[in-house]
Amino acid sequence: MRKFIIEFIQLFPYEYKIFRFIFKPLVLIFKLNKKPIITNFQGIKFKLYPSNSHHQTGIALYPRIIEKKMLNIILKKVKNKGIFIDLGSHSGFYALTIFLKSKKIQTSYAFEADSATSKIIKKNIDLNKLNKNVKVLNHAVSEYKTNFTTKEIVDLELNGDERAKKEFELYEDRFARLIAVMIGIVDPDVIILGGGMSNIERLYS
Length: 205
Description:
By secondary structure, the protein is an alpha/beta fold.
């Protein structure tokens, strides 16, 4: 069924939003299957779990448009230093794609806090035989675990929750220290923030 859905959707010009709106019921059916799927994104193999992630669903169903604008921006920013860092790498999408699309990257680092997700990234690296050039590191800015998503913590902080405020301030402090160390050691051209953190404007001030 999933193979049929992929092939059917890709017959249409889904670059237009109206088609993606029409396909929503098919996308929901596609995500019901909790088993992983191996897919090919522009010549790059990925083991994905669409039932757990909108982003991984997009990689499988909408390869012509998924992250197209962001990928183009990053590729234009990459110079000749040879280092790329993907924080909150998730499936390893940027770590792998930027390495293979840019001829200027020598080593790509995928940082992921979740151990199970780190294993998926490692599998995707293995699928593309890039163990020497793409590295996965099971580390994060904080060692603390929480049941809240980053979006929930940010929303609570914006609404004046004191605990969320302290957690976010701790994140900012550790994030700044981590970035300073990374830049000092490897001097990357581009650093990607995963998990939606790149949408938080105060991190840029």
